Amino acid sequence: TLDRSSAASDVYKEVVKQVKSKINCPLDQKRTLEALGLRKMGQVVAHDANPAILGMVNKVKHLVSVEETK
């Protein structure tokens, strides 16, 4: 059987902070920032590190800083 409590503790979090403005960025990058929950400069959000989130962060990597936590 799978012990769900230990599996849940192994989930890594990505702490994403918007460090550059989305002004003059393509619309798809603006929408990606909003999908990540980033609406203002300096805003910080935490997400589970799954492939969808990692792909979105990679798309706007020049606008955000990322820190991985457990």
Can you lay out the helices and strands and say which pair or pack?
Layout: H1 4-9, E1 13-18, H2 27-35, E2 44-48, H3 51-59, E3 64-69
Antiparallel strand pairs: 1-2, 1-3
What are the salient characteristics of this protein?
70 residues, alpha+beta, three-stranded antiparallel β-sheet, 3 strands, 34% helix, globular
What does it look like?
The protein has 70 residues and is an alpha+beta fold. It is 34% helix and 24% strand. It is built from three helices and three strands. The longest helix has 9 residues, at 27-35. It is globular, with a radius of gyration of 14 Å. It starts with a helix and ends with a strand. The model has no long low-confidence stretch (mean pLDDT 90).
Residues in helices, as a percent range = 25-40%
Number of DSSP helices? 3
* Structural class assignment: alpha+beta
What's the arrangement of strands in the largest beta sheet? 2-1-3
Rg, Å, rounded: 14 Å
The biggest beta sheet reads: 3 strands, antiparallel
- Strand share of the residues? 15-25%
Q: What is the number of beta strands?
A: 3
Instruction: For the record, give the distance between the C-alpha atoms at the N and C termini, rounded to a whole number.
Output: 24 Å
pLDDT average, as an integer?
90
Order of helices and strands: HEHEHE
Give start-end ranges of low-pLDDT stretches: none
Shape: globular
